Amino acid sequence: MINELKQLEINALAELQTAETEEHFSNIRTKYLGRKGLLTGLLRNISQVPDVEKPLLGKLSNELKNLLNAKIEEALQQQAIRNKEDVLLKEKIDVTLPGNAIKCGRIHPVIQIRREICSIFVSFGFSVVEGPEIELDYYNFEALNIPHDHPARDMQDTFYISDNVVLRTHTSPVQIRIMEKVRPPLRILSPGKVYRRDSDVSHTPMFHQIEGLLVDKGISFGDLKGILTAFLRKIFGETTTLRFRPSFFPFTEPSAEVDIRCVMCGGKGCRVCKQSGWLEILGSGMVDPAVFQNVNYDSEEYTGFAFGLGLERIAMLKYGISDIRLFFENDIRFLKQF
Amino acid sequence: MLVSLKWLKDYVDIELTPEELAHRLTMSGLEVEDIKTIRPQFSGVVVAKILSVKPHPSADRLSLCVVSDGNQSYPVVCGAKNISMGDIVPLAKVGAVIPGGYTIKSSLLRGEKSDGMLCSEAELEIGDDESGIMHLPADLPLGLPLEKALNIEDTVLDINITPNRSDCLSIIGIAREVAAITGKKIKFPTVKIKESNEDINSLASVKIIDSDFCPRYTARMVKSIKVGSSPVWMKTRLEAVGMRAINNIVDVTNFVMLEMGQPLHAFDFRFLEEEKIIVRKSRENEEFISLDGKSRILPADTLLICDGVKPVAIGGIMGGLNSEVKEDTQVVLLESAYFNPSSIRRSARKLAMPTDAAFRFERGIDPEGVVRALNRAAQLISEISGGTICKNYIDEYPKKIPLTKDIPLRLDRIRQIIGTQIKAKDVTGILRSIGMVLKQKGKGTYLVTPPSCRVDISREIDLIEEVIRLYGYDHVPVTLPVVDVKEMELTPRLDMEERIRQLLTGSGYTEIVNYSFGTPQAADILSLPENDERRKTVMIKNPLGEDLSAMRTTMICGLLETAKKNADNGSFNLKLFEIGRVFINSSKDELPEEKNMVAGLLTGEITDEFWCSGKTVDFYLLKGSLENILFDLKINNCRYISSSIEPFLHPGKSCGIYLNDKKIGFLGEVHPDVLEKIDFKNNLYIFEINLDILERVYQKKKISYREISKFPAVTRDVAFVIPDAMEADQMINIVLDQKEDLLEKVIIFDVYKGKGIAEGKSLGLRFFYRAPDRTLTDLETNAVHDRIVRNTVNLTGAKIRT
Ligand SMILES: [Zn+2]
Fold first, then answer.
1. What stretches of B352-394 show up as alpha helix (H) in DSSP?
2. What are the sequence ranges of the domains in chain B?
3. Shortest Cα–Cα distance, A125 to chain B (Å)
4. How far is CA B440 from the centre of its chain?
5. Domain B195-396 is of which CATH architecture?
6. Residues near ion ligand 1 (Cβ under 5 Å)
7. Where does B197-247 have alpha helices with state H?
8. CB nearest to B510's CB, from A125, A223, A332
9. Is the pLDDT higher at A9 or at B628?
10. Chain B window 63-122: which residues touch A at a Cβ cutoff of 8 Å?
11. Most buried residue among A262, A263, B348, B600 by CB atoms closer than 10 A?
């Protein structure tokens, strides 16, 4: 009888192994454990077993019953999980199709450069200020030490609205407007559009400039070099090599043009740097005492420096753009690249 | 300015390579923009001597020569007449290449062997003379390559001279600078004049009427000249720096101008009536034909050089055709004058004649160099044209040209500006190297007198610049300023602009930047009425073109144009925005009003890859973007008013945007008429908002947290049937105006027209009721809700849809 019980267990487990569907499992349950099942049938003959064996047999048959029940239950549960997964898998979607949200737009590349430069100077303690784009001759020229009939006016070809009103040719007039209102010390930065009567691959009649001004007691040319070196290394990288060379701007003296080692050829000479190995990046200089006089600053007490740079030029160098006009053609295929 | 290195070396020894020299000049303020090499256009041409000349046996016009290069003799057949035994000439040997790429070969000419070719100036492109074989100086060693013998190879530096450095507009000016930076001595040309007994004062006179414009006028006379071509040394120098050689008289005036920086003019004395020069301003409508052959009506107050009867030159700008030096000129009157810089500049600009002379006069020439240049030119003319110089020169000098003297210079101030403790002897050394005269005034103070050519130096700061420039910017140590700076208020608008930029790009818009000027037709394209402010256009007087002549009064035209250009390029789905200024002409102020605006545009499909939606953009997408901006800026009381119509927008699909009863902008679909005008196929949706008005309302509001109710909301949906003309906004306002405390909010959940609605439209409203301190009972909710619905129905005549 015990042997039969053992055999029954072996058979049942073997059948469970091969069972696949929920139906199979419930058939197996009925076959072995049902009221007319094999185990029940076997136990029906328990009276024929000697009494001493009865407790053991009872225990074994109980264990078998529990074992089978547990096995079937476990298998059924797993089956249920599998079934649910099957249902979900049937809902499979193509995850490689593009997303459905509206795709982001882009900020204009020149404005991106403006933000970057402004944030560097803001971290140096500069405040961002603005001024009019249509400007009086006085602010654009005279107050900046560029009198009428002075050859320095040739440096910038000007758009005129009237004899006395121009499209500003640089953001420098903002310096004057601020200095007229604010006493030193001051650190200001004025970004904005400027206009020059010029149009070719490297000139557009409108472009963007940033002008900076720092005035205080004891400001020296060394400080100018310090601030501008720190700035250019932030923009072009810490290892950027630069040089300061004498130049001329009517509103600064001494004046300096700042060049960086050509980012295209590393200084060997190429088309971009016109074989010189250097790229002109910004103009700068110590504020001319004549300018201070125009705004009633005492040039004996205060000194300062100013600098200005063209944003399109920086963007062209950073992104390898050779035609400045692209910035204003606003071709979406161009703008989306930045 | 172009500078020939060969010419430069006439005045200063240079041991540096051209590249090193260029670098040193650049780093001291004379930026060298380009280095060019001039090479002869021939090779294999040597100095040779004609040993014999005899006629060709079978050709009258040819001769047979035997020519030696010192080593060997060659038979050469030659067609020129100007050769004789013993002449030193250029020989192009067999294998030589001459300009035009011709290679000389051994050949038979009418039966006679020819191993080479004797050359003219023109054939070698050394000069223009094609009349005969070029004759070389007798002392040249035979066999020497011609380019060596004539020293033809040269290097030319293109130097960018800043407007302040008029002293560098000459080869000697550059030489002075080179001498200063290399520590060499400058060699001025020696000027020696051999005068005849005839006194100029007995032959001619000068009278200056306008001494403000012409403070000094000097003149010399050279007689018995022979006009011809200039010697090679002069021509190669002139041509190396881009000046065309003309004749030995004109070339000398150009040569001396380039050498010394003093523009000169030579008159053919025959044509100076009454043998006099009168310097005066032009009268109204005077006409004059200048050397370039152009006739001009001169603006009043142009300085004229006249003879006793008529004008003969525009002072300091260009000579006249009527007194030009001709082939048969025998007597010249040479002019060397000082003209007032700003009057020359005004005239040159008005006349659009930016000549080399005007360029130098308007920047300021060396007042002390006038006579030096006059003598130098007289000497050269007499040397190369065989003329005789009359005794004395005329020097009319009615008005003293002021020179700067004794500028105080403080060592402390230099050190303060530079930011380093430069030594006193370095300062004095640098200043003396560029010809400054220093007097010690006290401890650490000097009185400095600049040389007369440095008209740009009049103040202490000018001297400091010279010191630091030659000291070397590289030697100034880098420092960082320690400054106590008052924080300046950042304008809220810039902050606002950044937020808008962020938000719009996040919702798919790409930023564009258009020119601030465009076509004056913009207002017509937009069909703006006559009294519209946006017709008050600011016009540019000297635009690059008519289509770039009007400052924009709205950014809409730019956006439409950008959309059009992109569509033409195959980009039809566009979301664009621009932040910038528009300009409104002001009748009362000199400067126009500048308004800061943001404008946007939508067209095409919502997304390029529309596999899942395929929906085109519409009014509500654009409005949603705007609402987001206003939400972000915490401006929540804007109204959209459909009765505010822009002529360029669809009257049924557009509205004005109002903030506190002030119009801040508009949005809507572009009017079909405008689409037709710009030839655009798809619908366009646009908006424009004035940021200056927003700025006044915008502030970074203090946010105070309001507690969230822990109790549930109760909702009730009601569909009201209202007339088509009635706007949702009106319904919502009627509901909200009842100010029921328990009504938390009301939203629109459905707008329906069609089946089941006989007339008008159905507006589904969902009401949310909530109390902060308790769960609302049905009874409470119903009481409030019924009241609101009843009032709404009463106020609007709406029907409840069931
Ligand atoms: Zn390069």
1. 356-363, 370-385
2. 2-39+154-182, 43-149, 195-396, 407-475, 492-697, 714-801
3. 8
4. 44
5. 3-Layer(bba) Sandwich (3.50)
6. A 262, 264-265, 270, 272-273
7. 232-240
8. A332
9. B628
10. none
11. B600
